[in-house]
Amino acid sequence: MHLDPFIDPRFVDAEDWGRYLTITETIPVDFEYLEPTITDQDVHEARELALASDNVRTALEGQRYEVLAVGSRTVDRETELPLVIVYNYTDDTVIEATVDLRAPEVREVSMKRYQPALSSAEQSRALDITRDDGRLSRSGIDIDTGLGLVVEDVNFRSPQYGHRLVDLRFTLTNRRCPSAFAIVDLSAQCIVGIGLLPQEELS
Question: Residue 47, CB half-sphere, CA atoms under 13 Å: how many?
């Protein structure tokens, strides 16, 4: 299957490369839609059960943390269990708790080091930190236009190494490219990089 890029408005001075694409034969396959196995009520119950477990409570005692998501973990062909993902900002670790709601019990608790996807609550907090900083607001940037994703500092000598970093980009409605950026460290709750991006003159 070819998913060609969509450019609007189209380039008027570029060659149409479609004639160089190889035509791929596709074969239809049977499929079925599956309803979510974990309901909103399951998410709420799994979250509460995980945070109440002795192992999770001990690991998070005195720490600054947040439940980022409740997903699912496949145990076998017939069994899917809620997976509660908690980020510990104090030591930048992830706690994963597999919950059996029928028991009810927490089957497994594991501690890992990786960066889960950005949650909506984290993006809102990163925007608030940027708004409180004031530099972009004073430059005329609408902070509410900011969209973020998680990035990592790979320099192990950096103070931000292993921290929860959010790269925010801010875009004006009449421009395609971002007009400003802010790198927010949610672990240290501060901004580590901020500024305006160079813009080409609008035609």
Answer: 14
pTM, to two decimals: 0.79
Please give the full DSSP string across 147-177, using - where no structure is assigned. Answer: EEEEE----TTSTTTTS-EEEEEE--TT-SS
Alpha helices in 53-119, H assignment, sequence order? 54-60
Mind listing the pLDDT tens digit for each residue in 115-167? Answer: 999 999 999 999 999 999 999 999 999 999 999 999 999 999 999 999 999 99
Taking Cα atoms as reference points, which of 64, 183, 178 lies closest to residue 129?
183
Identify the sign of the CA torsion 61, 46, 148, 136: negative
Which two three-digit tokens encode residue 83? 């997976």
Beta carbons within 10 angstroms of residue 150's beta carbon: 16
